[in-house]
DNA sequence: TGTTATTGCGTTAACGTTAACGCTTAATTT
DNA sequence: AAATTAAGCGTTAACGTTAACGCAATAACA
């Protein structure tokens, strides 16, 4: 491993001169500079990042822009937990995290946020790009010096450092495959598409329908559930739908609000109970999984997304390693019998 | 950010004393040590890894004792991949790995291995304790200075630093739950128990049977498949069994050789195809999952076990953090539609 | 009573990089 | 000719951690 000292010795100069050449800080005779450059190339010198960061003792500030943790039934708290775990591990590496929360059901109050983030002079930004427009606006205002990466979702026509999420279309296919394992393909199915929708939700619906179409199963209804900013209004909608189509075999809920569908099924005591598949292992969903109303939950490994997000930014900014442009996390299938260790893993391994 | 200097000032001692407390190197008065410990806790001190790594010149040698990578259809290569990934990440942290492979079907040749490991003066050891006796013998010979941890399995009456594996009994329950989602509980089931068995296999069988008993399903046959050191002899056994019990609804294979059962089902063209659930996402199992002969594969996250194994030893030996005595990994359910990203994740995120 | 260990601490020199500072020359200005 | 400036370089003190070393003071021996 070559050091600045060795280079200096080989070039018969002091380390100060080598340093000036390395950083282009001038005050070096052209011939000397060239000689040193040559030796640096020959020795394949790479600065020791430990020494550099130790000396600079500079703090790296990571901004995290995401929905309020309690939204989607606490789903976002799981991502945040993964980030907190990573930030804690990296505390000794001069990394600080700053959470900026937004209300995913409200486009207002973003101006204030944008100004706060722009003024914060952050070194990097981790974004859950749920609200496309305001986030696009933020990216315009952002300094070019500030790399950003997306998790959970994606945003077209931007150039993030990296994108960490799942294949939403494939997760729809997976839901359909599981559904067909539970119910013969001759059954009838309901897909609840939550409005306001996004790329994510649409891809899930499409994946589900595509899979069923492929195996010649066409008995699928897609219900547009416009919940606006009130997640609790799903209940009467599903209730109403169930009265219209009583012979339903399976329901696919396309977001974390699956527990609300489970409540409807439970309250109406529908028999035989339709199979229910949904997303995200939040507490309310675990409750109905435990009681057998929800059959499968597809998990997006939110805590891992958060964890990887922090580490990806760390590798890019601090250790200057090349990072992957896209990290696609596996689709986890959760049932009553394996949720214990998924939840335990989240709590124990990630939170603390 | 707290440093040992600040701690020293607060405790009215020198940094040397703080250092001795931090590393448990003795030569500190008990009261002084306690006072310093308290301050360390209060300030939430975390060592600066830049400084530590800059200073450290010592290499840590980790030994890895496990079955040959090709065994169990390449299952062990997945653990090894996870370890290689971690070792690569820690290369700049003075960590080197040394693989010691054994033949899990042969108790010989272990003497040579034991001597090699004992002579190697390793700083830590990661062990897959498949062969209880020779490994117990190794642990006798091992220096007390050398901590070891187990992955994949466990060994009673030993005191490993940590154990990283799954809940085998629960994974049997999970298999049964999935089976019942595929087949009505009135069906008849076959459990193939591979001999030579171990704690792991037995717990899986027990979990499966326990779950079914709990829901009053008693139509379960447990077939002892004595494969000795020839994994290929499963085929005729299952063939013979199937002829005796033609009306089988589901088969639970208790190890990675699930693909061999799939081959039997495929060759005999049994109709209707019995549901098949087994373990480990090795290439051969992925092949039959893709073709719909295997319905579910339960994965043990072998690459994660390996990855965590290396990091656990690292935290204990290098950063001197306290480590968890037991890491229980989630039970992953793999189907045709989600195996792509599980495999990709292994290949992309862990291998490189 | 003197000699040797042991305990409990403080001191210090690295590790590689950075950047402020200062010292020579030589060039340019008064 | 003296004074000022600048170019070109070397020196040095950090950054936080580690671990060897050393020095008292006490304890355990002969």
The domain tally of chain A reads: 3
Order of helices and strands of chain A: HHHHEHEHEHEEHEHEHEHEHEHEEH
Overall pLDDT of chain A, averaged?
89
- What characteristic shape of chain A results from the CA principal axes? elongated
Name the beta content range of chain A: 15-25%
Q: Judging by the overall fold, what is the CATH architecture of the largest domain in chain A?
A: 3-Layer(aba) Sandwich
Question: Count of helices of chain A?
Answer: 14
Task: Classify the helix fraction of chain A into a percent range.
Answer: 40-55%
| Gap between N and C termini of chain A | 37 Å
Report the top-level CATH class of the largest domain in chain A: Alpha Beta
Any idea what the CATH superfamily of the largest domain in chain A is called? Answer: Response regulator
Uncertain segments of chain A are none
Short description:
2 copies of one chain form a homodimer. By secondary structure, chain A is of the alpha/beta class.
How would you describe this structure in keywords?
homodimer, 352 residues, alpha/beta, 434 Repressor (Amino-terminal Domain), Rossmann fold, six-stranded parallel sheet, six-stranded mixed sheet, 14 helices, 12 strands, 47% helix, elongated, DNA-binding
Describe the protein's architecture and organization.
Two copies of one chain form a homodimer. By secondary structure, chain A is of the alpha/beta class. The first copy, chain A, folds into three domains: 44 residues, 434 Repressor (Amino-terminal Domain); 137 residues, 3-Layer(aba) Sandwich (Rossmann fold), CATH 3.40.50.2300; 132 residues, Response regulator (Rossmann fold, 3-Layer(aba) Sandwich), CATH 3.40.50. Helices cover 47% and strands 17% of the residues of chain A. Chain A has 14 helices and twelve strands. A six-stranded parallel sheet of chain A has the order 2-1-3-4-5-11, sandwiched between helices. In chain A, strand 3, helix 7 and strand 4 form a beta-alpha-beta unit. In chain A, helix 1 crosses helix 2 and helix 1 packs across helix 3. The longest helix of chain A has 19 residues. Chain A is elongated. The model of chain A has no long low-confidence stretch (mean pLDDT 89). At the A-B interface, helix 4, helix 8 and helix 14 of A face helix 4, helix 8 and helix 14 of B. Chain A binds a DNA duplex (30 and 30 nucleotides) through helix 2 and helix 4.
């Amino acid at each position: 491993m070559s050091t600045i000292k060795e280079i200096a010795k080989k070039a018969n100069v002091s380390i100060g001169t080598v340093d000036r050449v390395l950083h282009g800080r001038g005050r070096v005779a052209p011939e000397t500079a060239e000689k040193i450059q040559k030796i640096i190339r020959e020795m394949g010198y790479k600065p020791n990042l430990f020494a550099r960061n130790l000396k600079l003792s500079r703090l790296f500030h990571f901004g995290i822009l995401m929905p309020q943790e309690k939204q989607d039934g606490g789903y976002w708290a799981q991502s945040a937990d993964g980030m907190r775990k990573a930030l804690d591990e990296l505390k000794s590496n001069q990394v600080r995290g700053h959470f900026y929360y937004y209300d995913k059901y409200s486009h207002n109050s973003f101006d204030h946020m944008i100004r706060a983030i722009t003024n914060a002079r952050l070194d990097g930004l981790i974004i859950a790009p749920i609200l496309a427009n305001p986030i696009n606006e933020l990216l315009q205002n952002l300094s070019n010096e500030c790399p950003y990466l997306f998790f959970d979702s994606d945003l077209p026509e931007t150039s993030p450092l990296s994108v960490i999420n799942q294949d939403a279309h494939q997760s729809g296919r997976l839901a359909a495959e599981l559904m067909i394992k539970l119910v013969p393909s001759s059954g009838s199915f309901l897909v609840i598409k939550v409005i306001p929708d996004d790329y994510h939700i649409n891809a899930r619906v499409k994946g589900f329908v595509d899979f069923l179409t492929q195996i010649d199963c066409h008995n699928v209804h897609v219900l547009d559930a416009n919940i606006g900013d009130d997640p609790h209004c799903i209940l009467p909608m599903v209730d109403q739908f169930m009265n219209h189509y009583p012979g339903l075999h399976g329901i696919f809920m396309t977001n974390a609000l699956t527990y609300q569908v489970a409540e409807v099924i439970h309250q109406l005591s529908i028999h035989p109970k339709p199979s229910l598949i949904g997303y995200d292992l939040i507490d309310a969903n675990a409750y109905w999984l435990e009681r057998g109303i929800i059959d499968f939950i597809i998990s997006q490994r939110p805590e891992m997304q958060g964890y990887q997000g922090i580490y990806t930014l760390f590798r890019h900014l601090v250790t200057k390693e090349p990072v992957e442009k896209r990290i696609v996390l596996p689709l986890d299938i959760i049932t009553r019998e394996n949720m214990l260790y998924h939840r335990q893993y989240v709590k124990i391994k990630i939170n603390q």
